[in-house]
Specification:
Structural class: mainly alpha
Shape: elongated
Number of helices: 3
Number of domains: 1
Distance between the termini: 80 Å
Number of strands: 0
Low-confidence stretches: none
Mean pLDDT: 83
Order of helices and strands: HHH
Radius of gyration: 23 Å
């Protein structure tokens, strides 16, 4: 097996582990999504390029190249749309909290 292919596949595996760790450890949904999308996209692209170097048939190389193109087109767009929906949901949630009626009838302390 080609040494460069092994290096690419191993680096893809390391990046996928880092992405999984980020999804588990990061504090909020947007940070977790960022870790999964950015590192995941790069890792899967590296894995496909490493597999391309190993495959002797052009048919497999063409399929793997299509997979990489599909990943690079769809994953960032999907991540952007999910982040946008999360931000809009948090803004709408904050507006509903601000518009909620005050339940306390006590007078505020006078100074």
């Amino acid at each position: 097996m080609n040494a460069l292919a092994v290096l690419l596949i191993l680096s893809a595996a390391v990046l996928l582990v880092i992405a999984a760790w980020g999804v588990i450890k990061l504090p909020d949904a947007l940070a977790r999504q960022h870790a999964a999308t950015k590192a995941g996209t790069l890792a899967l692209a590296l894995l496909c390029v490493g597999a391309m170097l190993v495959m002797p048939e052009w048919e497999w190389v063409r399929r793997l190249l299509l997979i990489v193109v599909f990943l690079l087109v769809t994953l960032p767009v999907a991540s952007h749309l999910l982040a946008r929906a999360a931000v809009r949901e948090s803004v709408a949630h904050q507006r509903s909290i601000d518009a909620a009626p005050v339940l306390s009838t006590r007078e505020p302390p006078s100074l």
